[in-house]
Records
---
Amino acid sequence: MTSLPKKWITLISLGILLILVACQGESDDQGSNEENSDAANITEIVGIEPGSGTMNIAQETVDSYNLDLELTPSSEPAMVKELQNAIEKEEPIVVTLWQPHWMFSEHDLKFLEDPKETLGASENIHTMVRHGLEDDQPSAYALLDNFSWEIDDMNEVMAAFGQNEDVEPHEAAEEWIKENQDKVDAWTEGIEPVEGESIELAYVNWDTELSSTNVVALVLKDLGYKVELTPLDMGIAFESLSEGDVDGMLIAWLPVGAASYSEQYKDDIVDLGPNLEGAQQGFVVPAYMDIDSIEDLPTK
Ligand code: PBE
């Protein structure tokens, strides 16, 4: 007679215990959901081409904030695709991205705060030429020296081909030139046209650099140049310019992004200064994510 209630008591106790454990588990989950559930699901930062300025400073950032994340090399188009896929499913994702970029007009994105400024407070894009260009090709040198435009200008060209597969970068550049002849006239004012001279510009296959390089190439053509555009990796572009194998390039984000390359080659390259001011690099997330700072990401 006494054994039955005892068994019941044991069973009831066990039941209560199970319920308590289950509740405990649930409330734990809720707790971690409230604090950075998005950050907890992040295991990587989706990067771009290895050897880019962006990847160099992104790795420095991972190290300096002691992040427990893999910086995955990729490419600009592949990174953009991954970001678009994540947004479609409302999944958490962190990418290396920059302004100007047409992705900011397509999606609600935010830069994570970077209190250590390892990704740069603000960047300018510099034009660089080989030593000797000023004497050998004064007209091309003068145009490259004069060329400078605003973020909105670059955005216009970039959006025209970045958001429409049927538009080539040179077509977008041509369209922009047609609509902004006054700006182009200011760059070319007083420059002597040439006949049959050749000039070679290196560039990296990024939308920002495709925009500026294609615009400048068309203006050089109008001045009479035969223009060759050579796509290279960033490190190779710096090396080629330092050796005089190419004449110029419009790819160096400074003071931070391309700092290691520009430091390495500073004696062998002529820096003509910014052709665009107020750009920005960073770790970027969709606006629906509940984190705001690089410091909210998981650390080691
Ligand atoms: N960017 C934009 C990168 C890639 C494209 C120029 C900031 C870089 O310099 O590495």
---
Amino acid sequence: MAKAFAPGKCILFGEHAVVYGHPAVAIAIEQGVNVSIEKFDDWVIDGKSFDHSKYPHISHILHDLFEYKGEPLKIEIESQLFSAAGLGSSAALSNAMGAALHKLIKPQEKLDIIKLAKIGHSAEAAAQEGRASPTDTATSALGGCIVVSGERLTGTEHVFDAELVTPEGKRSWSVCKAILPEEIEDVWLILGFTGEASPTGKMVANVADLLSRDPDKKSIMTNIKEITQRGLDALSVGNFEVVGMAMNECHEQLRSLGVSSDSLDRLVEASKPYSLGAKMTGAGGGGCMVALSRNPQRVSEQIEISGGKPMISKLVSKGVRLI
Ligand code: PMV
């Protein structure tokens, strides 16, 4: 049997602005997806017959990327992530599947994490009509804190470049690691799920519509870019008070873009008294918020009291691994 784990992610800064070429900062979380595979006498996934249309990521990895023609497989998936919540559950699934399959097929060969991130990105794009940024898959594969941008930012270490031919033309990104302090003090991420699905495509389209109706709103993107750089600089020197302030500011900018929601705002406000900062994370319209805090239990309680589902994660978590 081959087993692998890949973490989910949350976006700390730069969601939506990244669609317009600005940087996004994403961070791997402790929770993720476990995949185990073994050779079997029939194709089975989670105890049921494998319906390829229900698992486009897995199907693409198996057939198009690995060109798997071996014996049927029994695949088990166990996810610790809220799904459709902006936590990168499909990227984590792609990466864990790619890693487990690599172990099964090529047990002698070392797992190439960058190749895996690219495989995961291709699987995401195939499942999303050719449109996907490498943010989720790169963060889940590499772990730590990842900066995805049209340009290389100072204070980051370049890891690889990603390209994708989308229905709108060719896109390219620079994927970098943020350089974080060696010792991270006692700060935690607390994710709060609103219980509502986060419709990424719809939210991105709403923003595009808003900007075409009201071009003055484009300044919000520049504001988010500046906040992102400030947040990243503070993160790299371990100044978490400033990171938190930047998160609060980022939330306000995202609110003025119209991508927050009443439930996201409620969870953010409830978390603030016990947090360094809090904001929605990902596409918005539902999904999750994230708080940075030295008092994670208190923030979790606040999220629960306000109707959300909390999850606590270390600030720095490792990327995909064989288990
Ligand atoms: O909610 P998520 O994790 O799918 O994040 C979407 C982030 C956006 O910037 C809104 C879209 C994108 O493609 O980067």
---
Amino acid sequence: MNHKVTFIPGDGVGPELSEAARRCIDAVCAKTGTAVEWEVFDAGIDVVEKYGTALPEHVLASIRKNRVALKGPITTPIGTGMRSVNVELRKALELYACLRPCRSYKGVRSRYSDVDLVIVRENTEDLYAGVEFENETPESRKVIDLVNSFSNPKKQIRRDSAISIKPISKFGSERIVRFAFEYALKNKRKKVTCIHKANIMKATDGLFLAVARQVAEKYAGRVAFEDRIVDNICMQLVQRPEEYDVLVLPNLYGDIISDLCAGLVGGLGLAPGANIGDSVAVFEATHGSAPKYKGLNKVNPTAMILSGMLMLRHLGEHGAAGMLEDAVKRVISDGISVTYDMKSDRNDPTAVGTREMADAIIKALR
Ligand code: NAD
């Protein structure tokens, strides 16, 4: 079948990685008798001058039309006031579920060999909602005065504070927890673990946990359920990652635990991801734009290529997805044509570049 996909190369190392992924997808499609037609659009700080925004409407329109996009990482400059294009995109398209599978591949340099976890991160709420007030502004003072006017005297906020609001809704919590259970059922997963800090954030995380427990009841007997406090799960994951299956988390904990889990399976260069809504899905690696490596043909394309593999699965191209994943596995387990981060010595002169690793994966397709 032919598919039309929006392609956003990204910035930093984004263009070289997304190009590597695109070549692998084109190659596997050619072998399996399918085809992807790419609609290429730029987004990020480099397009602001031309379009007056980092996320032009025509990019969103293309994704809405095609319903599927493959996206390279995009830089969010610190201290400029510019909002994250990645966060804006997820909000604009209601991509409420961030799915990040983390599994051990044979031959990867890691302390663990049997990790097979799936992170389901809420993507639209929490401290990521962008409801923020800088300190010593009329807005922050108004918010502080209002909150102090009905808060316990022992819980008064200092007037020179900056404020970030953490909204967690019943609707958003229900939607993401249901997504996690449905994913577990469809993919024959046994357990969903809800991660929270409800012992301290009784209102927000308390609601997330209460809703998770209610949703879990509907799946009782089919998918097991448990919950863990976020600090505790950090230790548990490092000690016994094999005990966990599907993790469902509010946005910020999901962001942090995603990187931790990427570390369990060999690093950020190996962690793919997808942002999924009811009608649209955008596939991208867990990692960012690693600006210091820009243009060096150095970093690992695996996370982007595996994000492309998830995209093929989403498009129903299971044969092509399986063939691509097998080729990635072969190249990794051979350990020869892999990038510096996959060698036991990071200065190993036999490490290949981004392009060459993609070439090896294309060669290993069968
Ligand atoms: P990062 O993920 O870009 O890089 C951190 C480090 O991880 C790198 O220095 C590198 O050592 C390693 N790394 C990352 N990708 C790798 C790869 N493919 N192969 C090998 N090693 C890799 O995180 P950061 O430095 O915190 O963020 C850089 C920029 O990316 C920031 O502007 C941030 O906002 C943005 N970002 C974008 C996204 C996205 O587009 N979805 C996600 C996270 C961060």
---
Amino acid sequence: MTTLGILGAGQLGRMLALAGYPLGMRFRFFDPAPDAPAKLLADHLTADYGDTDALRRFADGVDVITYEFENVPVETARFLQQFCPVYPPPMALEKGQDRLVEKNFFRALGIPTPDFAAISTETDLEPAAALTGFPAVLKTRRMGYDGKGQFTVWNREELAEAFRALNGQPAILEQFIPFERELSILGVRGRDGEIVFYPLTENTHREGILRLSVAPAPRRPQTSQLLAYRQSTQSLAEMYATALMTALDYVGVLAIELFQAGDRLLANEMAPRVHNSGHWTLQGAVTSQFENHVRAVMGLPLGSTNPLGVTAMVNLIGQIPPLESILKIEGAHLHLYDKAPRPGRKVGHINLTARTHDELLSKAEIIRKLVDG
Ligand code: AMP
């Protein structure tokens, strides 16, 4: 039996283990939080990411180490490399943890992004605003997720006020993109360099948190001549992801969040891990992102990423509707994460698969009403 060590024991770790058990794998988790969603699925070591004794114990007897949380300290991942292979490579963490480093990395690889400028002190505000114009989005360089540490500002006064609210944390100012939609591309790269892609996913956020994903992303506008358009959007997104995965000598699932604005496809950020916008693959693809991540890091052949119809993924945020009301919807698959509901907290998701987008959207509407009240 092979054992995969996973840094982070959140819902992504939980779903990785659930996908890996049928392959005959074992798991071990490392997470500073004792009450993490994956705690009942495998051995769970509770310690700080800087605790080298605990890290040694964690690594002892595991074959490969991966992570499900992109803010694992880079030094932790590098420290563990002396014991066994760590995938994705720690360099991917390093590039992804700082929005400025990440956007510069995108640009260096020819991947377009919204215009941006670094903000370290108040004197940087004026030239940054001159570059981006208004509205603009001020974001902390580090530790921002689900819209945290992020402000949309409409003028110089709001920008100065938002920067003061960050209490001196280094930030970036980005041009606000009035996008038509948000998309994400999920690629998987094996240890032998093989790369496969899932079809583009269309994502809807509210208050910076992902609410709904639909995959494959519907064609827009919906005319037949646009078939070629979607294919080229897909291939453009694949080109960006290939450039990133090749530059990083990547192994595992990589997600890139994109803005589609007119004929431009701009990269917002990447996640060197399985991703919320790939949860639809649990029911909607031949091989889920979780199984493919496990296969990739273990050096196994990658599975087919073909879609099985069209799938909607609805996140359950802050509350869980009555089980009966969800389970009686034909084709609805419920995934709960063993997390106590709190406002803004992702506690589960529902996958719903149908044959066509029209059929899917009418069913998804029933779920949206359940979830949003
Ligand atoms: P992020 O934390 O960068 O993923 O941002 C969370 C969400 O805020 C994104 O999914 C978008 O909906 C929105 N957002 C972030 N950056 C921008 C931008 N530059 N222009 C417009 N919307 C943005």
